[in-house]
Design goal:
- This protein is mainly alpha-helical.
- The chain folds into 2 domains: 244 residues, Orthogonal Bundle (MetI-like fold), CATH 1.10.3720; 51 residues.
- It has 15 helices and no strands.
- Helix 2 packs across helix 5 and helix 3 packs antiparallel against helix 4.
- The radius of gyration is 27 Å and the shape is elongated.
């Protein structure tokens, strides 16, 4: 009978989880769009076209939508004033708009998801906002993994006073008001994307450090570790070549489940006005901008909010699927 590796077995069970596979494909599509955003034929995310402010989502040319919007607004004024024809000023403006639409190629643009208060394309801003949000999530996750794995592995393998010191530091940092510290850092050091990376990753490594420590403690007295010690392997080699590879499944699951939490943290900071600075945008800052005008211009809120929600759900479905796939208990039950 051909032996089945942990990875083959996990992949086999992951494929049976339809929601996890759907989540995986959604995540791949999101990252592909974010990665290739510069070559996708969309309008520049920072370009302002003041003639196109607050255009609703439409597949029609911007000039046509703009003219229709002006006509509807003018008709409301005419109805309120009890007249049926344009004034001279309104007729002159209407003629000027027709001429401008016919001669200016910028009015041939299509805004399928609408525009914002400065005439910027919501589609391109949502895509580039996703690049920022996902980058912060990735950097936060990678930083948490690097710091947490190193400190957790050292604490679990070395034990004694090393373990006590590291775990007391973790306990102290757990007791600190994390979000308040992040807000204070952003307020003092300024709205800089690098500061945002550091602030979000500040205490994000604590949980993975505890998880890795527990796994290392349960494995460090195993026979394969004793064999490595007998062959003269150093502590570093034992940790990084023998112990950590046996905890990789838990680390992967933690990474997929923690990335959405980093995006949510960034979104919360951006909603408070402490996120990325203009002209850059993130999903959180776009949602914050959309809240102010959601009554009159609902697409400003709905587009980034729905986009972010779909990604967060996909990541959670994928994380849950990976957890079930790597869980030996579910293997035994099957």
């Amino acid at each position: 009978m051909k032996p089945v590796s942990l990875w083959d077995d996990a992949w086999k069970r992951l494929r049976k989880n339809k929601m996890a596979i759907i989540g995986l494909w959604i995540v791949i599509i999101y990252f592909a769009i974010a990665l290739f955003a510069p070559i996708i034929p969309i309008h520049p995310y920072e370009q302002q076209v003041l003639d196109h402010i607050y255009l609703p989502p439409s597949f029609k040319p911007a000039g046509e939508v703009m003219l229709k919007q002006w006509e509807n607004h003018t008709k409301k004024i005419m109805k309120k004033e009890g007249r049926t024809e344009y004034t001279e000023a309104e007729q002159a403006k209407y003629d000027d708009m027709l001429e401008d639409i016919a001669t200016n190629p910028i009015h041939q643009r299509h805004y399928i998801l609408g525009t914002d208060s400065l005439g910027r394309d919501i589609l391109s801003r949502t895509i580039y906002g996703g690049r920022i949000s996902m980058s912060i999530g990735l950097v936060g996750t990678i930083t948490a993994l690097l710091i947490g794995i190193i400190f957790g592995a050292l604490a679990g393998y070395m034990g004694g006073w090393v373990d006590s010191i590291i775990m007391r530091i973790v306990d102290i940092m757990y007791g600190l008001p994390y979000m308040l510290i992040v807000i204070i850092m952003m307020a003092i050091l300024g709205r800089n994307i690098f500061i945002l990376f550091v602030a979000i990753a500040l205490v994000s490594w604590l949980t993975i450090a505890r998880v890795v420590r527990g796994q290392i403690i349960s494995l460090k007295n195993s026979e394969f570790v004793e064999a490595a010690r007998s062959s003269g392997a150093s502590s570093g080699r034992i940790i990084f070549r023998h112990l950590l590879p046996n905890t990789i499944s838990i680390i992967i699951v933690y990474a997929t489940l923690s990335l959405p939490s980093f995006i949510m943290s960034e979104s919360f900071l951006s909603f408070l006005g402490l996120g990325v600075s203009a002209p850059l945008a993130s999903w959180g800052s776009l949602v914050s901008d959309g809240v102010n005008g959601m009554g009159l211009y609902p697409w400003l809120l709905l587009v980034p909010a729905i986009t972010m929600t779909i990604f967060l759900f996909a990541m959670n479905f994928l994380g849950d699927g990976l957890r079930d796939a790597f869980d030996p208990e579910s293997k035994n039950q099957a």
